[in-house]
Design goal:
With 249 residues, this protein is an alpha/beta fold. The protein has helices spanning 19-30, 42-52, 67-81, 105-132, 147-150, 156-176, 194-197, 201-210, 219-230; strands spanning 10-14, 34-39, 57-61, 87-90, 138-143, 181-188, 241-244. The chain has one domain (10-237): NAD(P)-binding Rossmann-like Domain (Rossmann fold, 3-Layer(aba) Sandwich), CATH 3.40.50. Helices cover 47% and strands 15% of the residues. Pathway: Steroid biosynthesis; estrogen biosynthesis; Lipid metabolism; fatty acid biosynthesis.
Length: 249
């Protein structure tokens, strides 16, 4: 039997093949949870799970923008550790930056489908499973972004979805409280992951200059807050939007 504050819990983490999702899998496993590393990129999810070991982690292919894919992921996830996950982390996300006047409809739709609709689908399907299995405590953690409040030019699609995630989180927290399921979101600043690797160096330098801590964040620094929200240490935190930005506004 694993020890740690999350012993006996199963976590389902999307976007687990990279960046914040991968770091989250590591820290939830460190705290004793069994982890399902889910990603559209199965190979990347397998790398995450293999690092943690077969007894503590399993990989799953999922496309969060597809209801069918998410629905079958619920059954597959329960089968992995014979238990519905009571921790769900919606970390899958994409950017398709571009100025509004030139933004192809496709880039708007793709970002919406993964970031906002994907969060909806995973939350809805996995919350149903938690409620059916009468999990005594559930925790759903969504990844918004400080961009929801900074509203950078060139990110109309991304900013709108991440602002949507905050409202979605609040509504879900109000609807699920009676089932013992808490729903919170995190607004990371600029975190050193493949998503930010494509941001031009000039922009990254400006961000670092504006950040009171004078540096980018590390994925583990977001994952630590996710691990806190997953655990009963945060038992009375519900419907919150927590900025983890090094002070960047
Ligand atoms: P990343 O690009 O390193 O990883 C994202 C992962 O999501 C990838 O493994 C990708 O394969 C997966 N993914 C993409 N579309 C998917 C789909 N349809 N179904 C399943 N998986 C899919 O990104 P990072 O940096 O780890 O970001 C994680 C979350 O945190 C995202 O929601 C992002 O918007 C958010 N965030 C990230 C920030 C940063 O500075 N890195 C800042 C604020 C928010």
């Amino acid at each position: 039997m694993a020890s740690g504050i999350l012993a006996g819990r199963v976590a389902f983490v999307t976007g687990a093949g990279s960046g914040i999702g991968r770091a989250t899998c590591r820290l939830l496993a460190r705290d004793g949870a069994k982890v399902i590393a889910a990603d559209r990129n199965l190979q990347a999810a397998k790398e995450t799970a293999n690092e943690l070991g077969n007894d503590r982690a399993a990989a799953l292919e999922v496309d969060v923008s597809s209801a069918q894919s998410v629905q079958s992921a619920v059954g597959d996830a329960i089968a992995k550790f014979q238990q519905a996950p009571s921790i769900v982390v919606n970390s899958a996300g994409i950017t398709r930056d571009g100025y509004l006047l030139k933004m192809p409809e496709r880039d708007y739709d793709d970002v919406y489908s993964v970031n906002l609709k994907g969060t909806f689908l995973v939350t809805q399907h996995f919350a149903k499973a938690m409620i059916e299995q009468q999990q005594p405590r559930g925790s759903i953690i969504n990844l918004s972004s400080i961009v929801a409040r900074m509203n950078n030019v060139g990110q109309a699609n991304y900013a709108a979805t991440k602002a949507g995630v905050i409202s979605f989180t609040e509504v879900a927290s109000k609807e699920f409280g009676k089932f013992g399921i808490r729903v919170n979101c995190i607004l990371p600043g600029y975190i050193d992951t493949p998503m930010v690797a494509v941001v031009p160096d000039k922009i990254k330098q400006q961000v670092v200059q504006r950040c009171p801590l004078g540096r980018l964040g590390q994925p583990e620094e977001i994952a630590e807050v996710i691990a806190f929200l997953a655990s009963e240490k945060s038992a009375y935190v519900n419907g919150a939007a927590i900025e983890v930005t090094g002070g960047l506004k």
